[in-house]
């Protein structure tokens, strides 16, 4: 089985080329619709972070243009695509588990189903080899840099006897204006940059998403203006390290300057962004956050570990004291700000004393949410070959002790909202109760309250009445 290698043309030409492949598949699918009375269906699964979720919206947009219809039932799909993650080992194990199931599905229920894998996990050689050898029922494999080639690769697969593998090692073009299916009508994510240059020693992202590349501010602003014209009220600006946005553009611009420009877009109501790296969080950005009325006073600021010794081994470029000073500045500038974070427990060499320093930071900052992870060894990263890997029982014990400290503090932070009337962007009907709506405050607190679905997409005042730690109950005013 040969690995294929397609190449890229400049952005607009490339988009036009892909549109011709879309049309080709569309003709086939329209014929199928005329013959059977129903459309072919696709099942799309995005694993991992918001970047992947956003990429999948583009994949789904292209599939929609090809005349496929989305289904949430994998067992009735003609085209199945997993946009994979490899940040931690369990994400990869999940993919292999699902591939086992798909083999059976293809053999017994739908031999014509096409199975595609893309995203971060596929960028790794060892994964490509494993799929070639052991998962021969997979039809199409591509990576993070050539997602826009989906239509062309599908045509290649349809015209060939065997699977198509097309994995690039870097970006050639950022193709703008791909069709996209947005998961929500009132909020949307917008990529402002791709890749990461930080090489935190535990992290595989820089190896699978390549070097940092910022989009031109005008392209970003134009995309947001279009979304707002379409009814979008809240924008999430996405990047692995948004604080270093714009530094390498031909006409450099800071993230703070970009925020101010986005803030001026008429009709837009809320701006969020993630992820901020503490080492690049400038005073200029804090000032811009404070000054821009549409920017939510909510900051995701991963600290990973409270021990300066471990932070150094992680290649994070800040100290415990530096991080705490930064938080102090942020809170001083915006007293009502809420903070969330990412924490890793069990990094190689982490002692009980180091772990206690992580607990110190949790106690001092008081987060509204924390994404907590057990360190996962990623082959190819510097941390994977460090000595003193921490035994599993020790890590599990620390992880539990961390949650015991964290959760009561999350409850305390949530409590500060009780009794207040807050603007809530109504998001959806609760999955468990059709009479209950869910929404989010500016501080990102999830609110449940009684209401009807015509309110979805509106920002309305809700009185917060009860604290459930990870969400609150409210009453519509
Ligand atoms: N093990 C555990 N957690 C990790 N993260 C990244 N790499 C690893 C790893 N090897 C976490 C970090 C990062 C978040 C997105 O995932 O906390 O901020
Ligand atoms: Fe990974 Fe660090 Fe880059 Fe975040 S900043 S994606 S943790 S290397």
Walk me through this protein's architecture.
There is one protein chain. With 477 residues, the chain is α/β, with parallel strands linked by helices. Helix content is 37%, strand content 20%. The chain contains 13 helices and 19 strands. It has helices at 11-36, 50-65, 89-108, 125-134, 150-158, 205-209, 217-229, 255-263, 283-291, 308-313, 320-333, 352-365, 392-415; strands at residues 41-46, 69-70, 79-84, 114-119, 140-142, 164-166, 187-191, 193-194, 213-214, 234-238, 270-274, 298-300, 338-345, 369-374, 421-429, 436-441, 446-450, 459-467, 472-476. The strands form five sheets. A six-stranded parallel β-sheet has the order 2-1-3-4-5-6, with helices on both faces. The protein has a five-stranded mixed barrel with strand order 15-16-17-19-18. A three-stranded parallel β-sheet has the order 7-10-11, with helices on both faces. Helix 12 packs parallel to helix 13 (392-415). The longest helix is centred in the first third of the chain and has 26 residues, at 11-36. The radius of gyration is 23 Å and the shape is globular. The structure holds 5'-deoxyadenosine and iron/sulfur cluster.
Features:
477 residues, alpha/beta, six-stranded parallel beta sheet, five-stranded mixed β-barrel, binds 5'-deoxyadenosine
